[in-house]
Amino acid sequence: MILVALVIVLVDPQAALAADPPAKQPTAVGRGGAAATVDALGTAAAIDTLRHGGNAVDAAVAAAGVLGVVEPYSCGIGGGGFMVIRTRKGKVTTIDSRELSPKAMRPDSFIENGAVLGFDDARYSGLSAGVPGTVAGWDVALRRYGTRSLAKVLRPAIKAARGGFAVDDTFVAQTEGNVEWFDDIPSTARLYLDPDGTPRDVGTVLRNPDLAATYRRIARHGPDAFYSGRIAAAIAEAARRPPTGPGADHSWRAGLLTEADLAAYTAPEREPTHVNHRGLDVWSMGPPSSGGSTVGEALNILEGYPDLPSDRARALHLFLEASRLSFADRNAYLADPSFFDVPLAALLSDEFAAHRRAQIDETHAATSPVAPGVPERSTTHLVVADREGTVVSYTFTIESIGGNGIVVPGYGFLLNNELTDFNIDATDHPNSADGHKRPRSSMAPTIVTRDGRPLLAVGSPGGASIITTVLQVLLERFDLGATLPEAIARPRASQRNAVTTEAEPAVIGSPEGAALDTGYGHDFRLGTELGAVTALERLDHGRLLAAAEPVRRGGGSAAVVRP
Known about the structure:
Radius of gyration: 22 Å
Strand content: 15-25%
Number of helices: 23
Largest sheet: 13 strands, antiparallel
């Protein structure tokens, strides 16, 4: 796949690329750099950038730009995300491009006539759209840690938007869940629906010339072209006056976003979270994301059980119970650190882990919701590594599949619905809505080092189940002896301090699932696919392993520079 993808990207016309895209392969081993994303075109963009001298940061942004074209319901410049970077000199840092609420937002903005808006009413509206942070995040990452300009790394994305991509079964299924709202917005319907109001047919080449032009404008003029001027005005207008058509059959509430909100946006660099797990250093994203702290707390709890490989059912029970307790603490203490003093050090301390571990019954599941502890003062994913040792783990999103359903007219990208990540039903919670506040996230882009050297990078989309997905992959790889591809492929379960544990069918139907049910008292509810992991691992003799899902969400794409 690696050579095929490279030849098509460099030689073939874009029309041929769209009609005959590179094949996906979920694993690849080699040297010179590696990448894994959910899509072969995104992975090819990263590998092409590495092959032509770019570093991992350059390659990550190049891949992300392409994913904004071919995975528009999951990510794009209308959203935001979190990037964890390990530089070639060993520094680990993070860039927060999480969306920001409008200055005019208040804790009761999602409450009407004394009642909280239903989720769909809140989501499919201008009200749910925060200031997109993706473009600012790309700019900060490239200026501080990249070697290429934004203009140069956006070239593959411009080509992809102009040439198009072939619609597949997954894209059709994702469209079907949004049809009744997409058809209310002419700019969205024109792009993603056929004239009869149904999803684009499988095999159709979907081109997005408006997005190509938007990318070109950003490439020429930098991020200011997005956060001010005509693009910013169009974003604010689409949010404040949702561009519904005459036949719209839903009420689309007006948002609060202004051009001034966009002009005020920044993507800050923040310290990563850090825990040591069985001799490995695990780095991830801190607040306003809850991913790094929740994964880290659960790993600290599991650290106290040295014999996990001896009984897989018991190991999974302890994993679920550690998740249950960590989610209780996440829900109580994680929010935008500019608005709430998150007790991060306490949540990630060994003392707090020991306190929470003592509350686990090793023989039986607890009943949720469990209470948080009392610490004494915490949507797609890609990974890239280059030959110099720079590693990037990057999760970015527009929140729900299809965001808030509004394609900004004339500019070709969907707006996010990230502000529904606030606790919209509470006015006094740390994560309540407020002005110029970042909603809590579950994104958990993670890098693992050993003795200061990069070892593994991993992450996943999936809402709150991101946390348990990343945690389970780390558990499978480092505690239960799985290879990285095995850890990604194994069936998953997710306990998020709920009465029931969400689980994939393969968990429920397994011997371990039966033991967790009848022996340990876990009450399962059927889930479909949990997560869509991409990861990479540094092997011996300078080799790299890139790995993605073999099946979930249609499978991912992994490649290396030199197989």
